[in-house]
Amino acid sequence: MDHNNIPTSPVVIPWSYEVFALQPEVRAAWSTADISSRLSVIRGLRRRIAANAEELVQALATRPGRKAVESVSAEILPLAEACRFLEREAARLLAPRRLGRRGRPVWLFGVEAEVRREPFGTVLIVGPSNYPLLLPGVQAMQALAAGNAVLVKPAPGCRPPMDLLARWLKECGLPDGLFRVLDESADAVGGAIEAGIDKLVLTGSAGTGRTVAERLARHLVPSTMELSGNDAVFVLPGADAEEVARALAFGLRLNGSATCIAPRRVFVPLELAAGLEQAVGRHAASIPPAPVPAPTMRRLAVLARDAVAQGARALSALPEGDGVEMAPLMLTDARPDMALLREELFAPVLSLVPVRDMEEALAGAALSPYALGASVFGPVAEARALALRLDAGTVTVNDLIVPTADPRLPFGGRHASGWGVTRGAEGLLEMTQVKAICVRTGRQRPHFDPPRDGDEPLMLAALRLLHGGPGTRAGAMRRLVQAVRGRFNP
């Protein structure tokens, strides 16, 4: 690939309303356009992604510790799949839904009803640094497919892939102004909120989410937030310890372990703990050190020392607070009430928690405020049963992380891990607001008339006939007939 052919990033303009102010008629034309024309833009983008993937790889090269193959497998390919999902499913999901007569209350005879999905208007997407293409990219495509205009605020140092998408979308026919990339500063988020947005989608830490949510509340702007994780792994009796160890090592290695649903807490039966400890140590030994931001490294060093002081056993050297990278840190004999197991950490750290049974594991997992994802390893029937009991937004069984890239699946957390979902059908619908339309046909409008004597017994008789049990309904028809006669023959 000739790197000289890659366009340089445009000059970053400090935030101002004029930078992204959109003419109302442009947004209106996009929101009311036939969905096939919106999806044709997304189809064109998908084909450009496939034809020019090397440009995206180069744009993602600034991601610390990232190999090119990871950019393709973890970001570029899943984004293309997400575009194709929209091409196949968006028209059906966004189509008006006519309710028909089934289930309509009898007293609403003559009323036709439908539910419509309409765009919010302008959606601000605040992207993360760990997956700077996939996460804001999928969210932006869903927002555009739903008929919204999109503003993207990349994480610091993560603007290049969004600039590429902006250029390609324009080349694919997206009208000017419908996809804007803001500067990378935090002020851009506050400025856009103050200027006026209709919805915000944020991927970031719980602290960032709390701060932004407070600001949104002052303007009554809705949001979807995917926040921090501290994922739990449950190892059932009968699980293949070698496969579990390979999975955990993969979670420590992928993207430098800077993945929101990377494994952090492993609940393992006492009788399996020693074997799993040895297997994980063997697989993790070949994982190279990963770059870790200085604030995270300092916090991790303190938390790890505290965990060891409280009885945990480190299987590798503890990180130094002034380091810039670290090999995977594994601790065993950890307890779920330790601070290390209750905080979010974007670093390759793993804690093994021996438990007597899964009841103890569930109780321990609940001590963390985060509930983004979880994984279960073991016999499929038992693992499925446990998955149903877990308080998490996404659960994988006998696998880790990768199945969540399925574009059909929604993704979102609970509790301190956020609210709402992105991706999948549910994520697309989150980019819309609901409008219900009711049409009365015929000329009967008895409810317009002032109340009359006899209305109350009429209504009570109808209520008992329609909703009462066998004893209540027994005389309801007779009372209804009497009430009708009294109402119309006073």
How is the main sheet built? 7 strands, mixed
**What is the rounded Rg?**
28 Å
Cα separation of the termini: 91 Å
Helix content: 40-55%
Number of helices: 18
Strand content: 15-25%
Broad shape: globular
The counted number of beta strands is 20
Enumerate the strands of the largest sheet in spatial order, edge to edge or round the barrel: 11-13-14-9-8-16-17
Average pLDDT level: 92
Given as residue ranges, the uncertain stretches (5+ residues, pLDDT < 50) are 1-19
**Which structural class is indicated by helix and strand composition?**
alpha/beta
How are the elements arranged and paired?
Elements: H1 17-20, H2 24-32, H3 35-51, H4 53-59, H5 68-94, E1 97-98, E2 111-119, E3 122-126, H6 134-145, E4 149-153, H7 159-171, E5 179-181, H8 186-195, E6 199-203, H9 206-219, E7 223-226, E8 231-235, H10 241-253, E9 263-269, H11 270-284, E10 290-291, H12 294-309, E11 313-314, E12 325-326, E13 329-332, E14 349-355, H13 358-365, E15 370-371, E16 373-377, H14 380-389, E17 394-397, E18 414-415, E19 418-419, H15 424-429, E20 432-440, H16 455-467, H17 470-473, H18 476-488
Parallel strand pairs: 3-4, 3-6, 4-5, 6-7, 8-9, 8-16, 9-14, 13-14, 16-17
Antiparallel strand pairs: 1-2, 2-20, 7-19, 10-12, 11-13, 15-18
Helix pairs in contact: 3-5, 4-5, 5-6, 8-9, 10-11, 16-18
